[in-house]
Amino acid sequence: MQIDLTHPVFQGAIPIMKQIEAAGFEAYFVGGAVRDALLGLPPHDVDIASSAYPAEIKQIFKKTVDTGIQHGTVMVLAHGAGYEVTTFRTESGYQDFRRPDHVTFVRSLKEDLRRRDFTVNALAVRHDGTVIDLFDGLTDLAERRLRAVGDPHARFHEDALRMMRAVRFQSQLGFAIEPATLDAITDNAALLAHISVERVASEFTRLMQGRDRNAGLANFIATGLYAHAPRLADHLAGLQALAQLSDTQIEDPAVAWTLLAHLTHEPVRPLMKAWKQANAMSDLVAAATTLLAALPEADAWQLYTAGQDAVDVAVAAAALCAPAIDGAAVEAAYAALPLHHKDELTVTGADLIAAGFTPGPVLGRTLHRLETAVVAGTLPNDRPALLAAAQA
Ligand code: ATP
Ligand code: MG
Questions:
Q1: Are residues 70 and 110 in the same domain?
Q2: Which of 80, 127, 242, 334 is deepest in the core (most CB within 10 A)?
Q3: Which of 96, 112, 121 to mutate to test the pocket of ligand 1 (most atoms within 8 A of CB)?
Q4: How many domains does the chain fold into?
Q5: Whole-number Cα distances in Å, 234 to 201, 227, 230, 270, 284
Q6: Residue nearest to atom 18 of ligand 1 (CA)
Q7: Up-side HSE of residue 38: CA atoms within 13 Å toward CB?
């Protein structure tokens, strides 16, 4: 089996692999780029695996950076680009159901491929395009199936994140999960609690952005993984509703979180905090979720306080969970607001002070009264009119 390596991300790395071979070692493309290229998808980043130890890679190449030397990864710099070369390794330990206690560098490609999660992720390709398939990954790829390399039970016990990766890849690639692999996820779902929330959240977000989101969610639910993810254990019905929305692909993670909050009725900020999401994301999702609940009846003030970004997110979420809502009309209503930001008010606090107000709560309340009146359309955003109204 030969693979087409004409894509520039492969082409740039080929001279490096040849140089490693010329020094007497092996080097292969591995991981997602190989899988994606075989599926006809554009590769994003290429991973190179080599029998050369990190110190040996650093002898072969003049310019290198130790990007992950403890895991065996050295970045080789060539013609303005960086290529990560990782030494073949085995992993052992895994006492805490995540990350191995020991990484051992080895010279055998087979040992390196054996530790990888799924057979479709355990393919290697030589610089001449020859595919090395030691775990029947090509058959699984052709049949669009995710199968753990080796004993699935043991593999999920070693690293429980792999279970989330399975449902994420199912959604992202539109693959099925092979039955024994799926059963092992069901048996080991509780081990997900040992994985850092950030890593679970990253896989969950990618699941939500995948082309086959509903299939990935269906197994996230059916295997019981959901019950070990932050704040979802009590939301089977909400998650089932989430897994039955239209298939439209979600691009923006904020839309995914908004739908999750909307359908589970979880309070947004504690939910987002439990999932360790950034404050800016939490603010956006909180605003979008509040607006989504008000649609299609949202009044001018609700649209105004949401702001453009949250309007966009709420409209995108509504397209999935409430398709009867006219999203274009909501966007138009937002665009037609007389005011979009407090800064656009033609009167400032300084103007009111110049007009005789003293700084303090009364001034603040007066400004707020003007702002709400302008947004509601009961006062024009016009300086003389607002100054007159302030005195009234
Ligand atoms: P993508 O980059 O699209 O997420 P990928 O398959 O390249 O997909 P990476 O996380 O970049 O995923 O990992 C690269 C490769 O390393 C995988 O293809 C797989 O062979 C291996 N790998 C990554 N994470 C694990 C893991 N938790 N357990 C076992 N192997 C893993
Ligand atoms: Mg990758």
A1: yes
A2: 242
A3: 121
A4: 4
A5: 18, 8, 10, 15, 24
A6: 31
A7: 28
45 Cα: distance to centroid of ligand 2 (angstroms): 6
**pLDDT per residue over 238-275, tens digit each?**
999 999 999 899 999 999 999 999 999 999 999 999 99
Name the pTM for this structure.
Answer: 0.94
**Closest residue CA from atom 16 of ligand 1:** 31
Instruction: Indicate whether 276 and 154 sit together in one domain.
Output: no
Q: Do 138 and 157 share a domain, yes or no? A: no
d(C-alpha 235, C-alpha 242), whole Å = 10
Q: Are residues 46 and 104 in the same domain?
A: yes
Whether residue 124 contacts residue 46, with contact meaning beta carbons closer than 8 Å, is answered with no
Helix (H, G, I), strand (E, B) or coil at 310: helix
State pLDDT tens for residues 262-271: 999 999 999 9
Instruction: Provide the CATH number for the domain around residue 109.
Output: 3.30.460.10
Q: Which atom of ligand 1 is nearest to the CA of 168?
A: 4
Same domain, 15 and 130: yes
**Host domain of residue 286:** 246-337
Q: Is the CB of residue 112 less than 8 Å from the CB of residue 97? A: no
Q: What is the dihedral of CA 312, 315, 319, 322, to 10 degrees?
A: 160
Ligand 2 centre from 118 Cα, in Å? Answer: 13
CB 362 within 8 A of CB 391: no
**Structural tokens at position 116:** 């990888």
Closest CA to ligand 1's atom 12: 32
Q: What is the CATH number of the domain that holds 260?
A: 1.20.58.560
Residue 236 lies in a domain: no
Q: What percent of the chain has pLDDT over 70?
A: 98
Ligand 1 binding site (Cβ under 6 Å of any ligand atom): 31-32, 47, 116-117, 121-122, 159, 161-162
Q: Which of 90, 119, 143 is the last residue of a domain?
A: 143
